[in-house]
Structures are given as C-alpha cells and as structure tokens.
Design goal:
About 40% of the residues lie in helices and about 25% in strands. The chain has about 525 residues and is of the alpha+beta class. The strands form four sheets. Strands 6, 7, 8, 9, 10, 11, 12, 13, 16 and 17 form a ten-stranded mixed beta sheet that branches.
C-alpha cells in the first residue's frame, strides 16, 4: 500500500491517503483506490487518523484482544489515595466523561497530566517520570516531556469548544456566571498574542491575557479564552456574547467587574437578553445624580445590613438603550428598566482614605524626583500645581479642592443590574466573583502558570487547556473544603498529601490490595462528599 499526500487549497491542511491497487472486472484493468488515512500534523509530520479510520482500527483490535481487566504483570506499591479522590471528582463533575467524548484517544493522558499538576505543586513536566513511578493515575504509563508537548499540540479548537459546551450545559440554568480576566507573563518572542499591556500585578514583562468564567454557586470554571496582552477588559464582552451564542448558551446571567463597563457593553448585554450585575464608577453622570439625591438617606440605620457592615439602597432607573443596525443604516433607540444599587461601607471609607493618601504621596514623589509615569499624567495635573522660579526652584502645591472632592466618595460604591432588585442580594452575588480571582491564583501559583514557558502557539493552547482541566478539580476541592470549614485545620496541599499516603499494592499472585485507610482519612473523604476507597 502506497501513501500519497494532498493539500486542501481552502484550508491549507495536508491529508494522507492510501493508494491501493485493485483489479476492475468491468474495465478489465488495474486501477487505484484512494482512502483517507488522516490529516498530517504540521509540527511533527505524523499522520493523525480520522475518526472513521481510528474506529475501524479499534474494532479490529477488539477482535484480537478479549475484553476484561488488564492483567497485573509486575509487583509494585503505589500511592493511590489522592488519585482516587480526583477520579471521583472527575465522575461527579462530568469532566472525565466530557473529556473522553471530546478527546477519545488521549483523554487518559490529559487527565494524568492534570493530576500531576494538581498533586505536584509547581513542578515542570520533566518530573512526571519520577511521579509516574510512585503513583496510580489514569493512563498508568510514563509521559515523557516530548510526548506531553505532542499531546498539547494535538488539542484542537473543535474539541476544546465542545468540552466547554458540555461543561456549561451541566450548570447553565442554575447560577450566575462570574467573568474576569488576568494576565500571564511570557519571555517568548514567537507567540503572536504576547504583547505589552496594562498589567494588574504591576508586572512589566510582555504578557497574554486570559479570560475565565466561573459558576458563582458551584465555584467551578467551565470556560476560558486566551487574549492578546494589549486587549482591555472592556473589549471582551461583545466577543463573549458571540461565543455564548456559538456554544448554545441562552439567557445566561453574568457578573462583571466595573472594568468591563461601557455603554456599548451594557447595550450588547440587553441586545442578547443577558441578565447581568456589573460594577459601575461613581463618576458616571446618572450615578452621580442619584448618589447626590440619596447620599444622606443612604446612611440611615434602616438601610444597614449588619452581615456586610454596609448600607445599601436600590433605585429603579431607565437605561437609554441604543442598537446600531448597519444593514438598515439606522440606530434603534428605547428605554430599558435597570436597577442602580448604591452602597456605603465605613471600613471601605477608611481604606479608601489610606490608599488615597499613599497614592497622593507617590504622585508628589514622582513630580519631585522628575520620574513621572505616562499613565499617571492626568492625576499629576488633577491633584497638584507645579511651578518653578529661578531662586526657589520647583514648587509643588496640592489642589485641595480636588482632594476634598475625591474624599466625598470614600466608602461609596455602586452596582447596576437588569434583574436583581434587592441591594444585598446583588452585593452577595457580586462578591461571589471572588471565585474567579481565587481561580486565577490557583492557575498561576499552584499550577505553575505565572510564567509561560512554551515556544509555539499550539503548545500554549494545549498547556492552557490541561491547566484549565486541573483548575476544575482544584476548584471543586477548595469549594468543598470551604463548605466543610476544613481550612480551619488543613491547607489544600496538606489535605492532598494526607490522602496521598494511602497505598495500593499490586502483584500477579495476589491481585490488588488496598493499604490502610485511617479514620482521619475517611473523615476527610466524607467531608469532601466522597465515599472512602475500598476493594
């Protein structure tokens, strides 16, 4: 059988075909029959089989190998407890089933890498071989660094989006979704989306941005998107709405930080019938107007919620809706009902004053030392007058009026919603977006994603996806630990280490034997909602 290679002119994808000879009885001549084997990986040059070809091979192999458990061929003792925990979480969350449906040929290897990232904090893939010799895990074999790179590169966009769709549908109508972005630094000069951008952590390295979507009630992530490092939060909402439509999400409720606020984004949310809660700046004209009317009324005891140590009220407003219609060349206008929530928190007022004092001091020092920063130029002029004379040199005078005006809003903040009328329900939901920030912390620190050390776009996409899968497991454990108040006695790493001590002994003569499970370990499994292991 010969193999020929053809390139699809439209997509540029290279495919491999078998070229089998056969005898045509009707024409009494030898002819060639082509059969698609699969696409050619542009990086490795290997043939990636089509689903039909793979399925046939699997059927053929089934006729040769009898079904049943894999026989034990060697004597070994492995750590088992933490892997067992992750196995059960994969079943409860549907991650294992969804991953298998989307990546049927590699899902076990992807799960094993995710387990490794979770259980071996901050370790690179070069240490996987050592970890493999000591642990039970889904694929059960070593995954060398080169093989893991190939796995990352073969995670395609269709499979990734299908996984998001399946995970989202498990929770689509049960909760609000909290959406936020973070930046991940990189030294790579070959990644197209690594750009200089405004970094939330004051990190001056080039970066990419990563958007994450979390369920506020489940505490689990089920969508992420990679962005160029110079893309700001406010530009991502329209694309988010588009991808919701692609994945079949309808009437989703989202929670957004005020960095996503713009009139265009609010109009886009209304246009797509999305329910939302979003932070808004006090400097917006319609917010200032209502706040001035309610400033004193807001601080009445009747508006205090002691649980939050915060005063809050809700005012119904009319949102001036606009929708541009390019095909008709006009703009559709109207009014939509919205709920503006205003809050005052005394503790926040004290913190705002302290933060502002520090900020004003840093502005003053920049001017004095001639080290002004470009992104602060407006604030230098807003809060200080600077003059110079030949005799006295530079004179820096504070603009007291501007500082007094800024101080008037210490402790105040505002939210906007098109669904939630009760101010403290809105506040409780809005604060649940902290799960996204904690998720970013897990992704960067525990999963070793603070610096991206990959050299190709395909490897980056794959590594991010496997890291995201690992983040689902970590988020599940953290949520269960919080609900059971386990953080009072345990750290996340300490709990995983304690469960990881449970061993599994295997030998051809005696089969599989589970090691001792202590009462403490049984209690931890039960607190996490998992039935302790037994054979």
């Amino acid at each position: 059988m010969g193999v020929i290679y053809l390139v699809n002119k439209k997509t540029g994808i290279k495919y491999a075909y078998s070229n089998e000879a056969y005898w045509d009885k009707e024409k009494q001549q030898s002819r060639a029959r082509r059969k698609l084997l699969g696409r050619v990986d542009p990086v490795t040059g290997e043939i990636v089989p089509t689903r039909g070809y793979t399925k046939k091979k699997e059927v053929e192999s089934d006729t040769l190998v009898k079904p049943g458990p894999v026989p034990i061929s060697k004597v070994q003792r492995s750590f088992f407890g933490a892997s067992f925990l992750l196995d059960q979480i994969g079943k409860f969350t549907g991650v294992e089933a969804d991953l298998k449906a989307c990546f049927p040929n590699t899902f076990k290897q992807l799960l094993s890498i995710a387990y490794y990232l979770i259980l071996e904090e901050n370790n690179s893939m070069s240490r996987f071989s050592h970890w493999n010799r000591l642990h039970i895990h889904p694929c059960g074999t070593d995954i060398p660094s080169q093989r893991s790179s190939e796995l990352f590169q073969n995670i395609d966009e269709a499979g990734r989006m299908d996984f998001f769709k399946k995970q989202g549908k498990r929770r689509i109508e049960k909760e609000y979704w909290a959406f936020d972005t973070t930046s991940i630094s990189s030294f790579s000069e070959t990644l197209k989306q690594v750009k200089d951008g405004r970094n939330k952590e004051n990190d001056h390295l080039p970066q990419i941005n990563l958007a994450l979507l979390f369920g506020e009630e489940s505490g689990l992530p089920f969508y992420y998107r990679k962005l160029a490092g110079n893309i700001t939060d406010v530009k991502t909402v329209k694309q988010l709405m588009t991808e919701f439509d692609v994945m079949g999400y309808r009437k989703v409720s989202v929670i957004l930080d005020r960095g996503f606020y713009s009139r265009e984004n609010i109009n886009e949310l209304y246009k797509n019938n999305q329910k939302f809660i979003i932070g808004v700046k006090l400097g917006l004209n319609y917010v200032k107007e209502v706040l001035e009317q309610e400033r004193e009324n807001l601080k009445l005891w009747s508006h205090l919620e002691s649980q939050f140590n915060t005063y809050g009220i809700c005012k119904t407003i009319e949102w001036e809706y606009e929708q541009k219609r390019p095909q008709k060349g006009d703009t559709l206008k109207g009014q939509k009902r919205a709920y503006l929530h205003l809050y005052y928190n005394p503790e926040k007022a004290a913190k705002d004053q302290s933060d502002m004092n520090d900020y004003l001091t840093s502005l003053y020092n920049d001017i004095r030392d001639n080290t002004r920063k470009e992104y602060r130029m407006k604030d230098y002029d807003r809060y200080f007058d600077v003059s110079e004379t030949p005799k006295r040199g530079m004179k820096i005078s504070p603009k007291e009026g501007a500082m007094i005006e800024a101080a008037r809003n210490y402790g105040y903040f505002a939210l906007l919603s098109n669904e939630v009328k009760e101010p403290f329900e809105a506040l409780s939901l809005y604060r649940s977006k902290d799960v996204v920030e904690k998720g970013f912390g897990n992704l960067k620190d525990r999963l070793n994603f603070r610096r991206l050390q990959v050299s190709s776009e395909l490897a980056l996409n794959g590594k991010l996806f496997v890291g995201f899968v690992a983040l689902i497991y970590l988020s599940y454990v953290k949520k269960k630990m919080q609900d059971a108040k386990l953080f009072e006695k345990w750290t996340l790493q300490g709990l995983l280490d304690e469960l990881d001590l449970i061993e599994l002994f295997e030998s051809p003569e005696h089969g599989r034997q589970l090691g001792e499970v202590t009462k403490k370990q049984e209690e931890l499994f039960l607190a996490l909602g998992i039935t302790p292991p037994s054979l």
